[in-house]
Amino acid sequence: MVSPVAAIKKFLFGRRAASGFAQAAIVFPVLALLTIGLINVPLAAFSAVHAANAANYGARVGSVYQSGAAQAAYAAAMREAHSVNVGTYVTTVSGGGFPGSTITVNVRWSVPNMIGPMLNAFGIGTGSTTITGTSAATFRQEGW
Using an 8 Å Cβ cutoff, are 69 and 103 in contact? Predict the structure, then answer.
């Protein structure tokens, strides 16, 4: 029977150990990138969907106001966008003011990019620290 100490020495210093350490040196960085990517991509997707919902809600609210439609759309979109603590959102509103005109709400979103700087260390990608996008919604302002 082999003693536990001898088995550990054989594992750590044998020829198979060198192969195992080389494999681990290749696999662990790839596994780390995949893990961070599995966190980062859904975070960006959630922010994009949330920004689209905020733009849609803001434009819908602004379309039913008879006066101050742009202000109402802006306030509604900002309130909706900031209802979660994921990402940052910047809202702009254009149009509106009289029945029949269109009111457009744009929501620009951004989330931290955790994988970009890591890829840049390997010479891949731009190393951007944020992922950004824009969502827009246009409604016709109602009037009566």
Answer: yes
- The residue segments making up the domain with residue 60 are 4-140
Tally the domains of the chain.
1
Which residue has tokens 């969907």?
49
d(CA 63, CA 102): 8
Round the average pLDDT of the chain to a whole number and report it. 85
What is the tens place of the pLDDT at every residue in 1-58? Answer: 678 877 777 766 666 656 777 777 788 878 887 888 888 889 999 999 999 999 999 9
81-119 residues labelled b (16+ CB within 10 A) or e (exposed): beeeeebebebebebbeeeeeebbbbbbbbbebebbebb
Helix (H) or strand (E) holding 60: helix 15-63
- CA torsion through residues 36, 40, 42, 43, sign: positive
Tokens of 61: 């609210």
Query: φ, ψ for residue 115 (rounded to 5)?
Result: -90, -25
* CA–CA gap between residue 92 and residue 81 (Å, rounded): 12
